[in-house]
Amino acid sequence: MEKKRQALRKLMEAVEHEILKKPNRKTLDRLSLLAGFQDWDSFQDALYGDSGGETIYGGHEEKKKETPK
Fold first, then answer.
1. Exposure string (b/e) for 46-56, b if CB count within 10 Å is 16 or more?
2. Which of 7, 43, 49, 51 could be disulfide-bonded to 37 (CB atoms 3.0-4.6 Å)?
3. Could you give the CA distance from residue 1 to residue 6 in angstroms, rounded to a whole number?
4. What angle do CA 15, 18, 20 make, to 5 degrees?
5. Residues in CB range of 61: below 8 A, 6 or more apart
6. How many CB atoms neighbour CB 41 within 10 A?
7. What count of other Cβ atoms lies within 10 Å of the Cβ of residue 3?
């Protein structure tokens, strides 16, 4: 019974290690592409920075036409 307990403990440690492991940079870049960003850094800037969405749309702002008064 002790061997089964040790084996189960090792299995649980391996599973916890995999669950807690951060994805590598290539995976993060690919996920960012799916979300519409160039790379992981661009995605992070949009979430936490002051970019305001320019990262997604290439910084092009739509110019509003002025209406004559």
1. beeeeeeeebe
2. 43
3. 9
4. 105
5. 54
6. 15
7. 7
pTM assigned to the model: 0.46
Q: What is the pLDDT of residue 61?
A: 47
Q: What is the DSSP letter of 38?
A: S
Q: Which residues contact 56 (CB under 8 A, 6 or more apart)?
A: 36, 37, 46
Say how many C-beta atoms besides its own lie within 10 A of residue 37's C-beta.
19
What tokens does 13 get?
Answer: 């440690």
- What pLDDT sits at residue 60? 47
Q: Which residues of the chain have pLDDT under 50?
A: 55, 60-63
One-letter identity of residue 56: I
